[in-house]
Amino acid sequence: DAGVTQSPTHLIKTRGQQVTLRCSPKSGHDTVSWYQQALGQGPQFIFQYYEEEERQRGNFPDRFSGHQFPNYSSELNVNALLLGDSALYLCASSPGLAGGLAGELFFGEGSRLTVL
Amino acid sequence: AQKITQTQPGMFVQEKEAVTLDCTYDTSDQSYGLFWYKQPSSGEMIFLIYQGSYDEQNATEGRYSLNFQKARKSANLVISASQLGDSAMYFCAMRDPWGYNKLIFGAGTRLAVHP
What we know:
The complex is a heterodimer.
Chain A: E1 5-7, E2 10-13, E3 19-24, E4 31-37, E5 44-50, E6 53-57, E7 64-68, E8 74-78, E9 87-94, E10 106-107, E11 111-115
Parallel strand pairs in A: 2-11
Antiparallel strand pairs in A: 1-3, 3-8, 4-5, 4-9, 5-6, 7-8, 9-10, 9-11
Chain B: E1 3-5, E2 10-14, E3 19-21, E4 24-26, E5 33-39, E6 46-52, E7 60-61, E8 64-69, E9 74-79, E10 88-95, E11 103-105, E12 109-114
Parallel strand pairs in B: 2-12
Antiparallel strand pairs in B: 1-4, 3-9, 5-6, 5-10, 7-8, 8-9, 10-11, 10-12
């Protein structure tokens, strides 16, 4: 049973460019959340998608946008990249908005973005 | 607003010994959930253990147990019989009661297990 898969694993961009990160949730999961983890910090919630709609959003600018497809996979788009966007971007999936029995999220290994 | 505090940037422990990783939280809500995740160098966040605010007993999962002291607002992780593979970053997190799966993470503790 495949877990949460993310692509690409590593990428390098320059300031002002745009990037798209992809996530396939764990089998049977229909809810996807995205987190940004800067070096040396804990992850910060970006937004959550359920039924192809953004349901919750953290304190991130509109440069961060997303999409969920009918097969529950998701994309995270970041426009006009800044140096401060360099981070590990983690995708997490769960069965429904409230998660599993203990509300746990299953995370992928992340996409490490470097902005030069 | 909810907040998680992990005051130990780094900890080390001898193999086969027990170690406690500290976590305190701040919330005005009565219903909340607390999590611990392990993050190895690969980057993946691995779920370890969960404690609900109304759970009467401390949560246990194999070698992991959560020392939940509600009045002190602490949720410390205890790892018994440490193994070399336990070396990783450990994050305490709280679920936002209004945000379903929105987790609020602490800054983490880096654990090093020495042979």
